[in-house]
Design goal:
220 residues; mainly alpha; Tetracycline Repressor, domain 2
Length: 220
Amino acid sequence: MTPHQHNPFPRSDATGPSPSEAVPLGLRERKKAKTRAAIQAHALQLFRRQGYAATTVDQIAEAAEISQSTFFRYFPTKEDLLLYDRYDPLMLAAFAAQPPKLTVIEALRGAIAEVVGGLPGDEWALERERGRLIMSVPELRARLLDQIAESIGTLSDAVSERVGPDADAFAVHMFVGAVIGVAIAAMLQSAEQPDGDYLAAFDAGLTQLEAGLPFTRVSS
């Protein structure tokens, strides 16, 4: 998200802590996340210059000033590097920490605002670039299905904890599947548009989901 784009998830305190500080992780986890993010950023720069297929693990390791063995310690494959989302654990922690009185979708909005609502434009630009690459490389799109299945399970557990143990497991899975579907649709739409605003599209999709996914007629 470039600075001029609308942000539907503004942070309530613009001078507050950074996303990593807002949802604290252990020191070891923070160091690992920082290293993964740095490797991924170097890789994205190489992908931009010479393309995903033409970029080797050796080149990425050299650019990040690490050994090849260190690369594989953090990412089993080049595909895993691009599919890695450093904000996922922060998002789950922020979602779990939202006030109990909020609905699930309100809690999702609160978590998004806390974690990515205040990201600098350059960091969000990298995330947009990563998303576009995933959508444009066939093998990455195929691997994305495995990641989606894992995300549905993880988010279903988080939603079940929020709504209580008596919630119907099937209903929770279907709801989470709808949320993930909204996220994917927003990603596809923003990837097809040079100035597409993923956060705005996702927020609009959540609003439609809250209303029961109604169809609206476009006036001629």
